[in-house]
Amino acid sequence: MTHPCVFFTIFYVVLTLCVIFPTPEFKSAGLTVETIFSKWLGNEHELFIQYQIRRTTMNMFLHSMVPFGYVLGLEYVRAYSYADNEYQFLATWSLSWIIYVVFATLIPLSVCAQFYLWFHDGLKDHPIAQKVAVYRNRNLGGSWLTVASDINLEYRRVDKIIIQSSSVVRVVATDNWVIKISPYTLDIAHQSDSALILSSADVHQWSPHINDNVQFVNIEVKPTRQHATPFKIRLNALDLKDLQNKISRPITILENVRVRRSLIDRFLETFIDEVTRNPVYSTNEELDSCIGCMQVPANVKLRKLCMDDPGHRENCTNCLCRPMWCVNCMGRWFASRQEKEPSTWLSSKCSCPLCRSRFCILDVSAVVRR
């Protein structure tokens, strides 16, 4: 029969991993440090930098308590599994276990001592505060709190983007800052004096999309500000475009790196190429902006050009709608109505977004003004 200590060890290891690297189930259940200690941590959207200082501190303390918590839990299980007259607390300890207990006790004590050095003088010695202080205006005598206030203000804006890089790492891009949020630290860089270099990319076989691999890109953020610390961010290649659209500095892609486009982007290229081969639709009417994106004039018209298939029950029908869509929005609409297997998309059919007339790619014509 397996000893209860074995079951406890397995349970403790699994629980610890789920707390340090929370799964979606743990997050939805509120079993995270941010949720459990929300009253002490405060609101991230109000004081972002101060919140991250408290969050990283709490993470360091709780994670440093993991070895000591195992000692307490294991001794409780061992005591419970023995009769009162059979179990002796110290007599069952071996030399290796005593060494482990000593280190498990010293780790949280040393962490607490470090906390005292950080917090006894207004947090200015905290690593995050020191990283923020690099960007203060020394000529005006500003402190790290001044820079933190600027970052807090930008984080409260709704136009920032937040990319979940992994279960424990987030990347935030505001109007002026690029921020990497990690369990134990916070890396920041001002966009005006930083270079972003896409140095490498790797492709993995696993993907939530059928027959479509996933690619991750590694971006080096190199601030030119003196004493600023460079850092790396790792993103899904599908999130790269969102980051590029938000930051003001271009991301330099090295020549030996090939970034894969998303499945939709690749399909759009093929869709547009097929539309250019179809007969054009000539008109002299004024064309309004595309009702999908409102960025470009409508430039495609749906009209039946394909031949009916006698063996198919749902053949294409003629669409009487005037040109109201651009080719990109029509292609995205077409892709969104297809099955998960991309190999069948080009030969599939779709319905008009307005009148629901069925059409295929052969029925999409480019609009030409007379």
UniProtKB/TrEMBL annotation:
The keyword Transferase belongs to this UniProt entry's keyword annotation: no
Transmembrane segments: 6-23, 60-77, 97-119
Annotated GO biological process: protein ubiquitination
Keyword Transmembrane helix: yes
Location, primary (coarse class): membrane
Membrane topology category: Multi-pass membrane protein
Compartmental location: Membrane
Gene Ontology, cellular component aspect: endoplasmic reticulum; membrane
Sorted UniProt keywords: Membrane, Transmembrane, Transmembrane helix
Recorded superkingdom: Eukaryota
UniProt protein name: Transmembrane protein 129
The organism of origin for this protein: Thrips palmi (Melon thrips)
Name of the gene this protein is made from: LOC117640403
